[in-house]
């Protein structure tokens, strides 16, 4: 579940980064090219931590 959350987070972060780069930072400079990759890494970290939290919460709610 942690890996799945990380992959989904990375894809969502990359898509949001591409949209931001094409719409908000629409200029001919090269520094906005880093934004999609930075958001993909951030999305992977957030997604994997949310997946870990989900697994831990689910394990804690099961009876022993």
List the helices and strands and how they pair.
Layout: H1 2-23, H2 35-61
Helix pairs in contact: 1-2
Description:
With 64 residues, the chain is mainly alpha-helical. The protein has one domain (2-61). The protein is built from 2 helices and no strands.
Short description:
The chain has helices at 2-23, 35-61. 77% of the residues lie in helices and 0% in strands.
What's the helix-strand series?
HH
What is the number of E strands? Answer: 0
| Total DSSP helices | 2
Residue fraction in strands: under 5%
Based on the model shown, name its key terms.
single chain; 64 residues; mainly alpha; 2 helices; 77% helix; rod-shaped
């Amino acid at each position: 579940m942690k890996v799945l959350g990380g992959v989904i987070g990375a894809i969502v972060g990359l898509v949001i980064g591409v949209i931001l780069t094409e719409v908000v930072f629409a200029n001919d400079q090269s520094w906005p090219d880093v934004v999609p990759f930075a958001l993909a890494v951030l999305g992977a970290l957030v997604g994997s931590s949310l997946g870990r939290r989900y697994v831990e919460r689910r394990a804690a709610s099961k009876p022993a």
